[in-house]
């Protein structure tokens, strides 16, 4: 867990990942408000980011 400051409300919270400086980080309450009704929508950009990270993991694990 990593301690961070919510980008929306400014409250200190913990997230289960190490955030990057390019994306905002939200506490559970703000995240729920922002994503209300959007939980099943994943954009092509999101898939590209996920695939890029998976490619790095596969390469690091030397999986063929």
Quaternary organization: single chain
Helices, by number, come to: 2
Percent in strands: 5-15%
Overall strand count: 2
- C-alpha termini separation: 31 Å
Structural class label: alpha+beta
- Looking at the structure, what is the overall shape? extended
**What level of helicity do the residues show?**
25-40%
Tell me the count of domains. 1
Record the strand order, biggest sheet. 1-2
For the sheet with most strands, the description reads: 2 strands, antiparallel
The helix/strand series, from N terminus to C terminus, equals EEHH
Describe the structure.
The structure is a single chain. Strand 1 (2-5) and strand 2 form a beta hairpin. This protein is an alpha+beta fold. The chain has one domain (2-61). It has helices spanning 28-34, 44-61, and strands at 2-5, 12-15. The longest helix is centred in the C-terminal third of the chain and has 18 residues, at 44-61. The protein is extended, with a radius of gyration of 15 Å. A two-stranded antiparallel ribbon has the order 1-2.
Fold blueprint:
Layout: E1 2-5, E2 12-15, H1 28-34, H2 44-61
Antiparallel strand pairs: 1-2
Short description:
The protein is α+β, with helices and mostly antiparallel strands and 64 residues long. The chain has two helices and two strands, in the order ββαα. It has one domain.
